[in-house]
Amino acid sequence: MKKRINVLGIETSNKIAAGEVVERPYSVVKELVENSIDSHAKNITVEIIEGGQKSIKIIDDGEGIHPDDVEKAFMPHATSKISNIDDVYNINTMGFRGEALASIAAVSNTVLKSRIEEFDYGKEISISGGKTDYIREAGSNVGTTIEVRDLFYNVPARLKFLKSSSREAAYISDILNRLALANPEVSFKLLNNNKKTLNTYGTGKLLDVIRSVYGKTIAENIIAFEGHSDIASVHGYIGNSEISRGSRNNQSIFVNKRYIKNKLITAAVENAFKSFLTVNKFPFFIVFLDIFPEYTDINVHPTKSEVKFRDDREIFKLTFNAIHEALRNYLKDSFSIPVEEESIALKKEEDKTEMQRIQLPIDLNSFSESDYKSVEYGNTKSCEITNVPYNTAEDIHTNENLVQKDYFNKHILKESADCPNEEYKTVPEDTKEIESAGKHIIPSEDKTAKFPSLKVIGQFHSTYILAEFMDNLYLIDQHAAHEKILFEKYKKSIKENNVISQVLMTPMVMELSPEDFDIFKENNETFTKVGFDINVFGDNTISIREVPLILGKPDVKNLFTNLLENLKNLGSGETWEVKYNTIAKRACKSAVKANDNLSIIEMKSLIEDLRYIDDPFTCPHGRPTIIKFTLNELEKKFKRIQ
């Protein structure tokens, strides 16, 4: 027998609709608190018992509900937010469908009491399982109070899927935290089993809410950012590496104050962090995107937790650029020192060198500047000793402090069989190495340097360069530093269309899937710009003839596959830094490795090159290139101070 079509009753259809809108107690809190926000409430209190399953009570001081509309508010699709379909594309409120109250009342015992300012009394309504128990006048403050008891009491199947009371309370706390962040001008209070767990003060300052929600540590380790375009503005805070975590729990995205989850914006933020964050960590961030409503569609998910944008590329680029610039400026400022302090420190260093003397096997005072530069040290047999102050313009005849004490310690102070006394030393034959040291030393007045000129102390474990400036000790990872230098050099070459390629002895022939082949054809110009020479070799087949020279000897097949995946994940976005991120990481193949012994000259050259790149403080993979220890920190470690 064929089944006939039945029209579901109101009670059944409401319960089914409730399954989409009301997933668990936190869904009830979200919908009702958003209603309070839409009513322009300035104080919202949420009280929950047993994770919200037993009781959820929300009190606000908003505009309230007109007495004639109290019963109507619980009817399906009843709303004050819109009046026709065109309004859906110009929504400025949290709610608009008119499903929440009807759905909540269908699966609980609900009591609502509300009053508007024009009336001296309010109205109260009680609904159990979708059926009205009573409607009556009641004394009430201006605003609305709603209590939802015994959630899912008539839907036992849904009740079984709820987690423990503590877990459900955690979900409620999380969503209320997000709503508080989006509305710093509103005071939020949360009482869990009569214990206050959240209290914001409605000062209108986002930093105050962040401190209340996340605590002092996070509030002190965040960086503000801001960006604007013709259709949207983005602003918010991003955390530094100190508060990065192994999960995305501390990430919040708001579009026109609506808390959403959006992979596009998340990818934009995390890609902006790729050059700065520690590997395998996710950034803390709070992103607010303000955009004209007509450029979005929020009617794509029952819980309104997803948003579609008319121009994904524009949103991605706006978010990425704003955060990337903020991080760059933050790192630059954290490693810079005031010009006045740097001048004082340099003066102290000069005064200090006047008091120090080093013994050389020749009398430099007897030479002119030209004689000094042309003298062949290796041919001298003189053992006459003259005290010469190192690193001074008067005796070394150079204005750029080319000869460093550490250089002499390593290269000049070598034993000489020609001198009768073992204390007498000879100097190296070639002075070009000494002169070349000065080519990378730029006067401190140059404002393009991202951190002060450092004095090299030595090398530790053939991996880390030790340097000092003022009362600070610096450790530089030589591999990460050189990798970043190559990375930025390559980026600059790409921007200037000046990438040098190397021809492969044997072209690499690859057969691609139809999807990958389409991505390659769409981005063929990109591959050409970064130094590849790739030709179509047949159906879905390509021939790679040239690759960028800076990559050394790459695994061409894996490199090309990674590039395709990177472009595929990026989608329609075309932000330059993200598109070439995979290529940039390959720069490490030709960088100085750990355990490579470097001379003082090489270390000094590496540090000076690092000072003048755009982002010197992290490698392309997000690891730090340089770490600073203050004298105060070291003295605390040695218990010299408290």
TrEMBL record:
Keyword Hydrolase: yes
Gene3D superfamilies linked: 3.30.230.10, Histidine kinase-like ATPase, C-terminal domain, MutL, C-terminal domain, dimerisation subdomain, MutL, C-terminal domain, regulatory subdomain
Name of a matching Pfam family: HATPase_c_3
Assigned keywords, A-Z: DNA damage, DNA repair, Endonuclease, Hydrolase, Nuclease
Molecular function as annotated in GO: endonuclease activity
Source domain of life: Bacteria
PROSITE patterns recorded: DNA_MISMATCH_REPAIR_1
Domain DNA mismatch repair protein S5: 210-328
Residue span(s) of domain MutL C-terminal dimerisation: 456-598
Parts of the chain that traverse the membrane: none
PANTHER family: DNA MISMATCH REPAIR PROTEIN MLH, PMS, MUTL, DNA MISMATCH REPAIR PROTEIN MLH1
Family from the record: Belongs to the DNA mismatch repair MutL/HexB family.
Function: This protein is involved in the repair of mismatches in DNA. It is required for dam-dependent methyl-directed DNA mismatch repair. May act as a 'molecular matchmaker', a protein that promotes the formation of a stable complex between two or more DNA-binding proteins in an ATP-dependent manner without itself being part of a final effector complex.
Name assigned to this protein: DNA mismatch repair protein MutL
Gene this chain is encoded by: mutL
